Amino acid sequence: MKSYNGTSDVGNIFIISENTHPACLVQAEIETRIKDNTKIFLISNEGENEYIEHCKALQGEQISLLNIDSSSLKNSYTVLDIVDSDRLQADFSDRLYNALHTIWEKVQSESGKSAIYLNNIYSFFDAGYRTSECINLLVNIFSKAKQNNCSIVVFNWKPVDFTKKYGDGDIDYTSKIFNNVMTFVITAIQDYENMRIISDVFHLTENEENLLKSLKSNEGMSIANQSYELIYWEK
Description:
By secondary structure, this protein is an alpha/beta fold. It has 7 helices and 10 strands. The chain is 34% helix and 21% strand. Helix 3 packs parallel to helix 4. The protein starts with a strand and ends with a strand.
């Protein structure tokens, strides 16, 4: 099993979790990229203390959905915490779109590597405030991130969500995003239905399924180029 110290490569990454937020894994990713002079943007919709405190420890900044503009994105590490905004307000989807749009404009206008981390990407697809404009922007960023020297890192995308379709009609946005992912990291999977979905999507053998079931909380399976390796990270 290989020690995982994060990656500074440009390329989209999926971190798939059945139940919990893999905070330590995400933080290892972020620390590696900051050391590599990568500019970090993290959008969290959970108000996770681990990420806020981690941001402060690395001299980053925390801003709310209400206050974001290009001039506020000055630090090498920014946490955009959207949990402090009232999701019931009519303009919440507009704020979410504007936040993502502002970050993307910043990425395109500056030189050097950058990475956008998205906690629970289905914030953008929630029936209460999803818009086709926001979803299309998200898909566009996934497809164009690498050519702009940027990585998109998604974490806590639950396996059951692979089976859902979002947006207008029967457009499968999940597949559109999947096609632009370089590396998948899957944490321990115990639920039978989640395992079935994961196995179908990644064409796992019975042995690989058993390995996933046996993983500890700080271990995972990394899948890239149709091959896999087991990894672990510090708790």
